[in-house]
Amino acid sequence: MAGALVAGSLDIDRYLAEHESKSTLRFITCGSVDDGKSTLIGRLLYESQLLLDDQLAALEADSKRVGTQGEELDFALLVDGLQAEREQGITIDVAYRYFTTDRRQFIVADTPGHEQYTRNMVTGASTADLAVILVDARKGVLVQTRRHSYVVALMGISQVVLAVNKLDLVDYDESAFRAIEDEYRSFAAALGIKRVTCIPVSALRGDNLLGPSPNTPWYDGPDLMRCLEDAPVGSDAAAGPLRFPVQWVNRPSSDFRGFSGAVAGGVVRPGDRVVVLPVGTASTVERIVSADGDLPEAAPGQSVTLTLSDEIDVSRGDVICATDQPASVSDQVEAHIVWMHEQPMLPGRRYLLKLGTRTVNATLARPKYRLNVNTLEHAAATTLALNEIGVCNLSLDREVAFDPYGANRDLGGFILIDRLTNETVGAGMVNFGLRRAQNLHWQDVEVDAAAHTALKGHRPAVIWLTGLSGAGKSTIANVLERKLHADGVHTFLLDGDNVRHGLNRDLGFTDADRVENIRRVGEVCRLMAQAGLVVIAAFISPFRAERRMVRDLLDRGTFCEVFVDAPLEVAASRDPKGLYAKARQGQLQHFTGVDSPYEPPSDPELHVDTTVTTPDAAADQVIRHLRETGVLPGGSG
Question: Domain tally for the chain?
Answer without folding.
Answer: 4
